[in-house]
Target: Glycoside hydrolase family 68 protein
Amino acid sequence: MTATSRDASAQLAESPARWTARHVATIANTACERVPLITGGDFAPIGGGIGIWDAWPVQASDGSIARLGDGSSLWMALGAPWFDDPDERHGHARIHLLRHGEGGGWHHLGPAMPDGFSPGSREWSGSARLDRTGRRLTLYFTATGRRGEAAPSFNQRIFAAEAELAADGGAPRLTGWHALREIVIRDPAHYMDPAEGSGSVGTIKAFRDPAWFRDPADGRDYLLFAGSQAGSRSAFNGVIGAAVADPAAPGNWRTLPPLLSADGLNNELERPHIVHHGGRYYLFWSTQAHVFDPAGPIGPTGLYGMVSDRIGSGWEPLNGTGLVCANPREAPCQAYSWLVLPDLSVTSFVDHWGGTFEPGTPRRFGGGFAPFLHLRLDAGRAALA
Model:
């Protein structure tokens, strides 16, 4: 291990920051930012006979959104055919490639990886970046289950794979997929084996959602991921994990202790990611009301975050509670999986829209991009712009 990677390991070896019941209990007594109500005219399917959720842009080597020659951008999103029960989509998820035009339109370009390439029975969330040439793409993703398994399992492994981007006329495409490798190895001292959890929605344990971040202060590459705390006595033991790349061998990743723990409070701190803004680091994640410990307190389904002046420690909850914004009260499940982009715009997908979701009633799954939001960040305060 190099001196640089030792320094990074030491920096993140401190006890993780804590998101606690004390923080969440304060939400009820403070002004809560609510996102605008989504109507049927605010979104549309992307085509291809699929619904999409969890999306991310392809990033340039400096962390910005990569642009093609015509100004459009490439995105990836989880996609699956439409089902009467939208929860069934998770068992059929594949990563799809999309093009986002400057005019705002979305174009479906098909599955990102070829059939039979992924080692899982399905593909869950990740991130992607281009190298400095803008032609070689690295995809970080979650391989869930194992290819060919008789029944879907919830084993989760974090992989990387590489492809060439061909964008010379016609629709962009990814070719020559290779270098498939498992890159973040679960440390049992810190992270629970996700196979130990159940398969019911809201109780699945995590080792997923790798989000790439390059620290502008020193050029180190990190992956943030959703995990579950090892050795916890609580069923609600979500953490945000981290791995750091070896500067001398950027393809080698060292698994680090968690950055943030919600042990005893919340089961899933999903799609964690970092944005650097105004000299500070902002750590964001999404979570849902039904994955809080029912003994309370329970926060709304929304975007949450913390702020620090360094990656390894010092994280404090934004707005004193961690809550950045939540779905409207009249449609508490309308959107999910918020991702804050470098320009502070925020993407998410339309989930159960148009009202409350009552158990036993049909779900109104939107399966498309929700209207983009925009944040305003001022030190420890965050609000919708």
About this structure: The first helix runs from residue 3 to 11. The domain at 3-384 is CATH 2.115.10.20 (Tachylectin-2; Chain A). Confidence is low (pLDDT under 50) at residues 1-10. Helices lie at 3-11, 21-25.
